[in-house]
Structure formats: C-alpha cells, structure tokens
Amino acid sequence: MKTRTWQFLLPAVLSAGSFLALLAVVLLTNPVTDISYAVLFFGLMLTLLLSGGYLIAYLRKGKVAPKTRFRIGIFSVIAVVFIMFLSTGSFSIVDGLIMLLVAGGLFFYSGRRT
C-alpha cells in the first residue's frame, strides 16, 4: 500500500473506532457505579479528538506539518480537560480564564517553535 493511503487510513479507522467505542460506553455503562467508565470515556474522547483532528488536517492539506500536529494535541487536551471540569460541575470563571491563558500561550509557543 502507498504511504499516503496509510496516512489517511489509520486516522480514519481510529476516528471511527473510537467514535463507536465512545457511543457504546455512553449507551451501555453508568459512570456513577464505577469510575473506570469515566476514565475510559475521557480516554476514548481524547483518541477521537486527536485522530479526527489529524484526519481533517490531512484531508485539507494532503499532509500534516509538525506545527499542526502540536496544535491538534493542544486543542484535544484542552477540550477534554474543559469537558472534565464541566462534567464535575466545578468549572468557574477563574478556571476558564486560566485554561484560556494556558491554551493561548501554548498555541503561541507552537507557532514560534517550528
């Protein structure tokens, strides 16, 4: 198989697989009874965001630059942490400002790093 086919196929399969697994976790489990379901949920969500971001970037430009990979990682981690805060009900304005400053600093740093 060509290298380009694998660069497209792997993120596509990971995105579809993690979406289906995430859907199964949401429909078949209850995180109140066992906390490991919540850990599994957030891990699958991170996998979905990373592989989906890589797939979208690859489809738009035909390749994924190191700066783009770094930004996809930053966005994915910040989004999962934001959803974790919201799910526990402990998200406040101060937390939002801190996350915004950290995300902005990391995005700025990623533009200067490469």
Written description of the protein model:
This protein is an all-alpha fold. The protein has one domain. Helix content is 85%, strand content 0%. It contains 4 helices and no strands. It is flat and about 45 Å long.
Residue stretches low in confidence (pLDDT < 50, at least 5 long) are none
H/E topology pattern: HHHH
Specify the structural class: mainly alpha
Strand content: under 5%
Instruction: Quote the average pLDDT.
Output: 87
- What percent of residues adopt helix (DSSP H or I)? over 70%
Gross morphology is: flat
| Alpha-carbon distance between the two ends | 30 Å
Number of individual domains:
1
Count up the helices: 4
**What profile does the largest beta sheet have?**
none
Which radius of gyration do the C-alpha atoms yield? 16 Å
Number of E strands? 0
